[in-house]
Design goal:
alpha+beta, binds zinc ion, two-stranded antiparallel ribbon, 4 strands, Pemi-like Protein 1, Chain: D, 23% strand
Length: 88
């Protein structure tokens, strides 16, 4: 697969082609997380991943569920429940 070649400007910024963003389902106003890594031979890889907020207390994402417009993970729900006292 041939990539689209873009230059990095003096401020170390790069414009990602609209076609690339559209193919990834990303729209203007979306939030993305930027990750950097290296491949098996040490070449740099920069990845953009659509940002999905995690637990509003600890940031954990895998078990976070939304409640009243905010996300909470299973661990924090249990901790809040134990500190708040059960009414039953
Ligand atoms: Zn949490």
């Amino acid at each position: 697969m041939q990539g689209i070649i873009r230059g990095i400007d003096p401020q170390r910024r790069i414009v990602i082609p609209k076609e690339t963003l559209m193919a990834a389902g990303l729209e203007a106003g979306d939030l993305v997380e930027v990750f950097s890594d290296a491949d098996t031979v040490g070449r740099p890889i920069v990845s953009l991943v659509r940002y999905t907020p995690g637990c509003c207390l600890c940031g954990e994402k895998t078990t976070a569920v939304e409640y009243s417009g905010r996300k909470f993970c299973e661990h924090c729900i249990l901790e809040l429940h134990s500190k708040g006292g059960a009414t039953t």
